[in-house]
Design goal:
By secondary structure, this protein is α+β, with helices and mostly antiparallel strands. It has five helices and five strands; from the N terminus they run H-H-H-H-H-E-E-E-E-E.
Length: 124
């Protein structure tokens, strides 16, 4: 029989959550999460999926101005005129597609994990 580890703050931190996030998880569920639930929340709240550390800095970047040739969200990158007929493209690589568990019965199960086009998929 496979026994799951005891879920506590120490294990949550090892999964990349901080104390505030672990306490929020306890509040959301109204109980201690299972080991699997801890794994799912730690992925969903990771930098990879939610930009939890960089989102505040990203929001400080300019979104309009006379030198903006292509605004953020218009295309796949922002484009800024730097003069002399030159421009700089700013692109942040995002694998921020939805993360989801794929049940055993899923027809997607044969897709290998790590394919960036499928986002953060976890086969159950």
């Amino acid at each position: 029989m496979n026994v799951e580890p005891v879920v506590n703050l120490k294990l949550a931190v090892e999964h990349g959550l901080n104390e505030e996030e672990y306490n929020k998880l306890l509040t959301i569920l109204g109980r201690v999460p299972t080991y699997t639930e801890l794994g799912i929340f730690s992925v969903m709240w990771s930098e990879h999926c939610s930009y939890k550390n960089s989102l505040l800095q990203l929001k400080t970047l300019p979104r309009e101005g006379k030198n903006m040739l292509v605004r953020a969200g218009e295309e796949n990158a922002g484009l800024i005129d730097i003069g002399d007929g030159l421009a700089v493209a700013f692109k942040i690589e995002s694998h921020n597609s939805p993360s989801l568990p794929l049940p055993f019965s899923s027809h997607f199960q044969e897709m290998p994990l790590g394919r960036t086009s499928w986002g953060g998929c976890a086969s159950l």
